[in-house]
Design a protein that fits this description.
CATH topology: Alpha-Beta Plaits
CATH architecture: 2-Layer Sandwich
Radius of gyration: 18 Å
Number of helices: 7
CATH class: Alpha Beta
Strand content: 5-15%
Largest sheet: 4 strands, antiparallel
Strand order of the largest sheet: 2-3-1-4
Number of strands: 4
Number of domains: 1
Shape: globular
């Protein structure tokens, strides 16, 4: 199934400080897929975190792919900045996505991220060069994108640039904060049971005591 993958800089500090930092990570995305085949559907790199939408070929592929990607990036980071210690806040987070309109909602959320980010002064998603929809400089090696299991509509760019509803955003934020599969209720229940994520569907807080 498809996954929404996120990681943040340790202590939320900036990991991508300048253009070459972003470009190096994009190259590593392609290199990682040469070592562990992975279908990359969408991505967005921001100063202190990244979002990826991927479609693994088999069980265990996502973990192996991400391990190579992050290990290689940390080595490059420390070598370049002559630093040491943790670069990322820990293990990446990954959330299963139902392969229907829910997948398009996540991809739209990812590619629209720079428009929502207050620290980035862009009004259109395509103006941020470090995303799968952005106008990346011609001298930068972009990773290959897979069309995925759900076709994007022809007016995809216009759709990405339209604000998402609060209902959509709240559902996505709940998925991220609760490690919850993102999809229809019936699909969520089945997927949570299969992956041992039932706790992510329970209401927050302690259950009420019976009187």
């Amino acid at each position: 199934m498809c996954y929404h993958v996120i990681n943040r800089g340790n202590g939320r500090v900036e990991v991508f400080r300048k253009g070459p930092d972003y470009a190096a990570f994009l190259k590593l995305l392609g290199d990682a897929s040469e070592r562990v085949p992975m279908r990359l559907l969408a991505y967005c790199l921001l100063p202190n975190h990244f979002h990826l939408v991927v479609w693994p070929h088999g069980d265990g592929d996502l973990g192996r792919w991400m391990q190579w990607l992050l290990t290689s990036h940390v080595r490059r980071y420390h070598r370049h900045y002559e630093s040491s210690g943790h670069v990322w806040q820990g293990r990446f987070k990954a959330f299963p996505i139902e392969d229907d309109d829910h997948l398009l909602t996540v991809m739209r959320y990812v590619e629209r991220n720079p428009v929502r980010a207050k620290a980035i002064p862009v009004r259109k998603a395509e103006c941020w060069p470090w995303s799968s929809i952005g106008r990346t400089p011609t001298n930068v090696e972009r990773p290959a994108l897979d069309p995925g299991p759900v076709a994007r509509p022809k007016d995809w760019l216009d759709w990405v640039n339209e604000p998402q509803t609060e209902v959509e955003l709240e559902a996505l934020r709940e998925s991220i904060s609760r490690d919850r599969p993102f999809g229809s209720e019936s699909w969520q229940r089945r997927t949570a049971k299969d992956l041992g994520l039932e706790a992510s569907l329970r209401p927050r807080g302690r259950p009420r005591k019976r009187t």
